[in-house]
Amino acid sequence: MKVNTIMTLKLILSAVLVLGLTASCSKQSSAKNASSATGWKVNDKKGGFQYASNFKRQETGPGLIMVEGGTFTMGKVQDDVMHDWNNTPNQQHVQSFYMDETEVTNLMYMEYLDWVKRVFPPDQENYKTIYEGALPDTLVWRNRLGYNETMTNNYLRHPAYAGYPVVGVNWIQAVEYSKWRTERVNENVLEREGYLKKDAKLLDVTAEANFSTETYLNAPSKSFGGDDKIVLKGRKNSLSKPIKTKGTKDKPATETAARNVYAQRSSGIILPEYRLPTEAEWEYAAAADVGQREYNIYKGQKKYPWSGSYTRTGKRKIKGDQLANFKQGKGDYGGIAGWSDDGADITNVVRSYPPNDFGLYDMAGNVAEWVADVYRPIVDDEASDFNYFRGNVYTKNKIGEDGKVELVNKETQKFDTLSNGKLIAVSFPGQIAQVPVNENETYLRMNFDKSNHKNYRDGDKQSTRHFDFGTADEEDAASKIKHRMYDSPIHNVSTDTLGNMTRKYDKSSKRTSMVNDNVRVYKGGSWRDRAYWLDPGQRRYFPQDMASDYIGFRCAMSRVGPKADHKKRPRN
């Protein structure tokens, strides 16, 4: 009995000792703002490692809706009446991202045009082509045997069409709009957070002094032309002012330079770029199979962005109403007067029809939409089944002789000459000049080996029909043209010494395809299309420098951080 009592006391003392040591260790490791790697204090007022410890989650940018990523069957369509065999079903996974709730409207695009016109006045020689290059092609409405001059003259600018999706915008213009939107949103965020002078974006902006996100991140003091009255040195935080120490007889006073005076990526407030969605993202968002989910499976495949096999709703209050605007039949774009089938004969005001299960409007009907991908007949899921995208062109910041990033100015800004001779600005004063990546980035890498990978596994030498590419010396220009994978027309536009434009149209009758590296995928059915094209899996292509009256676009943004903001439950 005595022995048992002693053993019990020993066990109790051991348990108390262990608990005490555990509590001590726990207390030490959970010290406020202490590093779990070193135990050093994070965000110490005296200096050291600083971190945005109060960051919670990515801010949702203006106009965007969160789309939780997942797996889906891409390219699965119920029929293939075109017999083009470019919709082979394949399993893909996309990460969570954000997408515009609606298509970009005339009003949204007009804001872009207004900014471009104010900052780069078209009456100045250096900038006259910038505004012209941003303008949509309003002549897309013209038809040889149709009277559409009302839309030609009014669709873009008249307030009656303000909420309608913008058309006449080619792929390059859509990309430039997305870049512009990135700059304006981040500019507004930094002003709100106290890093930029209030209202500088309206009162102080000029062609040579404007905001670029990448310039601010890499060389903040050069933003707004280097005006430190606009680019403010930090918010009211512990390290935004110099730190002074008291001196002694043996040691004089010191002053440590201020830190964290500018926002950085690690600040967590600067948003990722607005961009065009990839084809996989667009199709995944349009299909919205999340509405068909039962536990960890999908209950069948939708034919349209909504549930059911028909284009009309079965809901009791609005039973029989069309769920999108599209061409009902030959000569029927909107039904008979007094009883319109879908409420529109051309496009319609965004949000006129119910959203899909992700909360996105007009993913079928209204206008078809540009996506980022270069078109190829087959989606190469053997090479990639995660965030699939064809069209990667990797660049890096240009470094000047002084070892610092080199900014674009009015002499070095670049323009893209379209096949019709129109010039579109693809770089603006104040942005960081970009150059292709080289061997410094690609040497001994397994995941990429050059700057331009548009042709990877489909169009490069290894994938052409010519199998002797490894036996010959470097090919000349004529051989490269002859050995192309896709024998598409080659149009040439150049300018002579007098500034006159020379257009050389490819009149060859031997061309076999329109596919090349300058055609882009567009998705979704439009007001001009029959119901067949409303299927999210359908895909078509169009030259990236051409526009139409039925193709618009919407922007996307990558999500950083977790796949979702909430914990999953079995039937969530």
Strand order of the largest sheet: 1-4-22-7
Structural class: alpha+beta
Say how many strands there are: 22
DSSP strand (E) fraction? 5-15%
Distance between the termini: 58 Å
Q: Nearest-angstrom radius of gyration? A: 29 Å
Oligomer: single chain
How much helicity do the residues have? 10-25%
Low-confidence blocks of residues: 24-30
Mean pLDDT: 87
The biggest beta sheet, please? 4 strands, antiparallel
Number of helices: 10
Outline = globular
What can you see in these coordinates?
The chain is an alpha+beta fold. The protein is 19% helix and 13% strand. It has 10 helices and 22 strands. Strands 1-4-22-7 form a 4-stranded antiparallel beta sheet. A hairpin with a 2-residue loop joins strand 10 (335-336) and strand 11 (339-340).
Summary of the model, kept short:
With 572 residues, this protein is of the alpha+beta class.
Keyphrases for this structure?
572 residues, alpha+beta, four-stranded antiparallel sheet
What's the arrangement of secondary structure elements?
Layout: H1 2-29, E1 64-67, E2 70-74, E3 90-94, E4 97-100, H2 106-119, H3 128-134, H4 149-154, H5 171-192, H6 200-203, H7 213-218, E5 243-245, E6 254-256, E7 274-275, H8 279-287, E8 293-294, E9 297-298, E10 335-336, E11 339-340, E12 368-374, E13 395-397, E14 415-417, E15 423-425, E16 434-436, H9 439-442, H10 477-482, E17 492-495, E18 501-504, E19 519-523, E20 539-543, E21 551-552, E22 556-558
Parallel strand pairs: 12-21
Antiparallel strand pairs: 1-4, 2-3, 4-22, 5-6, 7-22, 8-9, 10-11, 12-19, 13-16, 14-15, 17-18, 19-20
